[in-house]
Every structure is written in C-alpha cells, then in structure tokens.
Amino acid sequence: MSKMNAFYAQSGGVTAVINASACGVIETCRKHKDKIGKVYAGRNGIIGALTEDLIDTNKETKSTIAALRYTPSGAFGSCRYKLKSLEQNKREYERLIEVFKAHNIGYFFYNGGGDSADTCLKVSQIGKTLGYPITAVHIPKTVDNDLPITDNCPGFGSVAKYIATSTMEASYDVASMCATSTKVFVLEVMGRHAGWIAAAGAMASTKDNEIPIVVLFPEVKFRQAKFLKAVKEKVKKFGYCSVVVSEGVHWPDGRFLAETGLKDAFGHSQLGGAAPVIANMIQDKLGLKYHWAVADYLQRAARHIASKSDVEQAYATGKAGVEYALAGYNSVMPAIKRVSNSPYKWKITKAPLSKVANVEKMMPASFISKDGFGITQRCRNYLEPLIRGEDYPPYNKNGLPKYAQLKKVAVPKKCKPFKVK
Amino acid sequence: MSKMNAFYAQSGGVTAVINASACGVIETCRKHKDKIGKVYAGRNGIIGALTEDLIDTNKETKSTIAALRYTPSGAFGSCRYKLKSLEQNKREYERLIEVFKAHNIGYFFYNGGGDSADTCLKVSQIGKTLGYPITAVHIPKTVDNDLPITDNCPGFGSVAKYIATSTMEASYDVASMCATSTKVFVLEVMGRHAGWIAAAGAMASTKDNEIPIVVLFPEVKFRQAKFLKAVKEKVKKFGYCSVVVSEGVHWPDGRFLAETGLKDAFGHSQLGGAAPVIANMIQDKLGLKYHWAVADYLQRAARHIASKSDVEQAYATGKAGVEYALAGYNSVMPAIKRVSNSPYKWKITKAPLSKVANVEKMMPASFISKDGFGITQRCRNYLEPLIRGEDYPPYNKNGLPKYAQLKKVAVPKKCKPFKVK
Questions:
Q1: Of A43, A264, A379, which to mutate for an interface test with B (greatest number of B Cβ within 10 Å)?
Q2: The domain made up of A4-141+305-358 is a member of CATH 3.40.50.450
Q3: CATH of A156-301, one of 2.160.10.10, 3.20.20.210, 3.40.50.460, 3.30.70.330
Q4: What is the spatial distance between Cα B415 and Cα A353, in angstroms, rounded to a whole number?
Q5: How far is CA A163 from the centre of its chain?
Q6: Which of A80, A292, A398 shows the shortest C-beta gap to B181?
Q7: How confident is the model at residue A357 (pLDDT cuts 50, 70, 90)?
Q8: CA of A8 to nearest chain B CA: how many angstroms apart?
Q9: Is the pLDDT of residue A263 over 80?
C-alpha cells in the first residue's frame, strides 16, 4: 500500500496557540515520512476540503513551520461551518471522499472546539458509512475551555494569562486614579456560556496582593442590587473596584445584559457589549466614575503574552494526534490529563470523540465563590498552572512580533468545482 | 544651609512607565545624599502636598524602588487636579508653602502631561511671587504624546507598541475568520485630541507584511461615505479589514462619534465608545459581520509589553530632572531630542516650562496619508524607534507579573488639616 497523505485544518474561533498545534501536527508528520506522505492543510477549515482548496504545507520551510509555534490566529484560515448529518447532507460527505481519494488522503486532523469535534466525528465514520477508510483525529482547541474529558483546552491558558495580567494592570491603573477620578473599571471578556475566562480575571488578586475584583459569570444569574452592593462595598474599602464581566452574563429572565434595551438613533437594537451596560449602571445607580474596556479578539489573539504551559500543551496535542493516528486510532482526541497539581504534571491521553462532540463543560459550582462574584481556592489551584510561564515570540527590529508568514501554495485541483451551500 | 528634601508626585492619567520615571528620580536623589535629603512622594499627586499626605520613599528598600522601573500605573497615586492661578486661589499656594516649609522641601518634581506642566510652572514661580524658594522640575509623561518641544513623551512608546502589536494580532485573527465569519475588526484607542496612538495601529502593516487597516484620526473629520468606501475596498481586496478608531473621532459638525444618539432603556444618552458606533455602521451599511474591542485602560497599563526605548527614556527623564534641579535649573522639563533616526539616537535636553504648559502637539499633517486613513513614511520613521525593543517584567510562579508592592509609609504630619475644595 502506498503512503497516505494527511489533511489538517483549523476550525471555529482561533486562539493564540492553535498554530502551535499545527506545528505539532506538521512537524510530527514530517518525522514519519515513511508512513505519512504530504500534509495538506485545508484553506479555511473543512471548507478547504469541500472546495478542494488545499495548501501544500511541504512547500513551507522547516523554519516557517517552526515559527507557527509562536504565531497566533489560524495560519491556514478557519471556518464556522458544521457538517450536517449524513442523512441531511450526503452530498458533502461524498464530496469529501472525492477530494480525499483524489489526493490520497488517509489521515484527517481537525483542530477545533465542540462543534468541530462533531464534524471530525462525522468524518471518522465515513469509513463505515460510505466505505472510505480514513483515520480522523480531533485536536482540541478553544479559548472557552469547555470541552469535556480534557482537563483544559489548548488556547485557554493563554487567554487566561492575558485576562489575569490585564485585569491586574488595569486595576493598578484605576487604583492610581481613584482619589480624584475613575473609581470603577469594567472589563468585558469572552465566554458566552462558560465563565472560565472571567474566572481568570479573579486570578489577578492574591493573598499577598489583594485587588478588589467583582466577577460576573454566565453561570450566575445577574442580580443588579446584589452586584451594586458588592461594588459599593469594595469601593468603600479599597477606594476602587474592578469588574470582570463575561459577555454571556444574563438577567434572571435569560436576556443577555449586552442586549438590554440599547437603541441607536434609528431605533435599532444596539448590539453593544455587557461592559458599557454595567458601566452605565454603576454611574446611574452609584454615581461613580468609570472606565470600561472590551477585550474581544485582543484576548484570544494575544500571542505576545501566551502561557508557556498552554503553548506546550497545544504542541503536544498536535503531536499526539499524529501518533494516535499512526497507531491506528480513529475517532479520538488527545486530551490533557492533570497528573498532579504541585508540582504541576500532565500527560496526554486518548478520549473517544463520541464523548467529546457537542458536550459543553461549564464551571463547576465548587469553583465559584459563595457570593457568586469570585472564585474558590479550588478554582485557583486549577487555573494557576495553566497560566504559568512565559513563551515570548521573537520580535522584528521594527518593534513588532515576528510571526510566521506562509507561502500557502495551493495544491493543483483534480476534482470538479463544488459549491458549499 | 541644611540639605533640602525633595517632593515627587504623579499627575494625570497614568502610563506603563511613569513609575520608571519615579525610579529614575528616587534612585538619582539617593545617589546625591550629600545634596538631597529625603524624597517624599505626594499621595495622589499635588493633593498629597496640599493635604500633607506624604509618603516617605526612604522607607522603601532599594529593590522595591528598582522594581518601580517595571511596574505600571502610578505607584504613589495620581490625581486629576489643576492648580488655579495665584490670583484665583492664593490659599492653595500658601498651603503648599506651609507644607514645604514644614518638611524642608526644596525640590519639586512633578510627573505628568500638559495640565501637570501648568501646575509645575505655577509652583516654580512661588519663589518669586510668595518668597519661598523652590526648584521645580516637570518630568514629562503622557500616553497622548502631545507635549511640545520633546520629540516624544514617555508613556507613549509603550502604548504604541501595545496598539501596534494588538492590531497586528487581532488582524491575523480576523484574517483567519473572514471566509465564513467576521470580516471587519474595529479597535478603539485613546486620544481625544491627537491621533498619535491611532497612528500606532497603522504600524501593524508593513511593506513585507501588508495588513488592511483603516485608521480614523481625531485630526480628520469623519466622512461616513468615504470611510465605508475605504473599508469596502479593503474587504474586497483582502477579504477582511481592521479599523483603528481614535476615541476622539468626530463628525464634520464637531460631535464625537461616541455620542451619536445611542440611548439606553431609560432614554439616557449612552456614553458608549466610538468602536460600537463604527461597528454598527459597518453592519447597517455594508452588511458585514464585525467584532469590536475597546482597549481603554488596558493599553496604557500594559507594562507586560512595554517598549524598551520608552522605559529607558522614562527613566532618563526622571534622572535628568534631578540633575537639572541639582544644577540649579528651575521651571524646566527634561525633553527628549532625537539626534538621529538610523541608528536611532536620542539625548535629554532642557525645555523651559513656560513653553510646555498648556500647549498640545497634534499629529503634523505630513504624518497622515492623503486619504486621511493611514500614515506616511515620515510618520513610520518617527514611530518605529519608539516602539522598538522589549523590556519584560519578571513574573511570579503564579504566572502573573511581579510588580512592585510599596509599603507607602506616611510621613508624620506637622501642619493643620487642609481641605481641598
């Protein structure tokens, strides 16, 4: 049997370290040239497979591939596209097989979160369902940290380090200003369903260096009076307060704070953030001067302050994914298993994809403090190793990070055009 | 004559490197123990002098003072408080003299921007006007980069590095997502009057690594149709676009974009940012999916990605300030003079405070590209050395920066209480 080629693609919202996983996949494939031929990357995730828009990663130099380790975002392009079930969209599965056959693809590595795990699971089954044998492995990635089984998700540690550091720095700032100016700083962070990133904000305060921070989790219904009381008390005690609010925070009736009745000049609903809503509330009800920030993409793109643990784990899951595939495991995901907390030790284990896809892991109740505005020691113990260590990118002389620049040479097409609906 | 003590205070919005100036002042004073006694820091700027709320910096260890070099924000507390003229508020000047006399203060170092230069200038004149001889030196600081005479302002280089890097990283992110999701990313940056910080966003794109970025400067009146056309063209060519919008951008009639008719549920004007206004415009008029961020305090507090040039200049201006004072210069400010661009060389020179106070330096027209949405090569040549080099803080084992923690021991009071009006 001739050597099979591999397909690799990135899916969903990107992270500061998803390319470190790509680096792990490609470098490991290159080490096994006896078993794996070329690595073709899908341009824009599974869309690249469907449209036969493949990038020949073999055209990239060794140093470019190595540079992926410290380059944020999805170097090959990502997508928000979930394959429907075989029954609903047989056409797409048949097309995948057409493209895979044409390019002799026997390995499928899909790098993404929960939705992408579902896509990967479906692809892993086309051997059985449609008679095209392929080994499909899902490489975990999500800043939301909401995949099950794995102790944590590559991508999360770096956004957590960014948010913890930024909350600390901005809190120092408001502490400097509070005597005569701003008293409350509000930072909105990602996390529509799970409060993991918001929890990282609370890490800025420690026993040795207490900082007044009120965290608003999507897991906790927003109670305005209780919240304002908490802020008021912190301001009274410390002179200032920081608020870290998850974008997914909602009122008891389920409406997001971010959609609380803001209208623009034309009467359209203003798709604003939760931060300005909280900030205005603080001014209206407490009469306190505020500043607010919305970190948005900055947080998940901030490779300049990536967590070393996170980079290592992102690489390791990519590497393990290839090793699992070579060992013949189909429909699995390399998961991170925490072996010990102190010293922090972890290893990679196999998780069956069927147990990963479409399952969201929320913050456990034991991680949220009793008042609902902070984190417990258990949560600290969990988070701390994930944000530990620095892993700086190199910089150019112009003062900017020297991120990878890929040639992205397209693989010549062999199939007919295909339109993604 | 007995040795005189020194007073040091921080004023206005803080920066990532104002404490590096404090470090320069205090370490240099400590080196001249024969001439300068103690360094008393005003708690919360000039307010600390008026209320006799002084911090004895001699109680801080050598290593704590050294740590100020890499600690963001104002370690001694800042203030937004401008002394009125002597005619309007003689009471405060007399009070300053009372406190200075009581604590044998003969040197006054004030670390701030344009308004603070005015306060420092007024203090420098109380020798003549009220017969209390004091040597007053202004140490420049402002992220806005709008002080005259000095080539650039300590604090600006670091925020510029943060914005350039963040714009680059977030642009990589949206480039990854644009095939099926977000096509425009909007980042709001500081700068109510001057577009220096917004200009830094344009630095993310270079000849070797072109990134589609549209910059909105406060110096350029906002023309909606022209702006939307520019974004549309970039999206057509690149598939995506980043917009860096200064908080001070305004309509041709002078209204800020940020106050364009947003109302909350109660009909109050929503004090939102410019970014959501731009983002909604892009959705309404171009039908493109967007993300937006507001960097706010994060940008000026981000010591974790400070510019090395900036840290060095912040320290150097603090050091030079003390040396000027010791040489008998009153009412001056150490200014940065660019000696050459390539290689970048600079030195510190004396600027008369009377020419600094209350003068704002805007972006020169020659720095803004013809279409009004970018920067010229001249601007690049100016900005590049300012964001060059990294100067990382040390980190704790918990993954967070190890910033200075001061004891801030209060100097025993000798005067009667005084109420700041």
A1: A264
A2: yes
A3: 3.40.50.460
A4: 73
A5: 13
A6: A80
A7: confident
A8: 15
A9: no
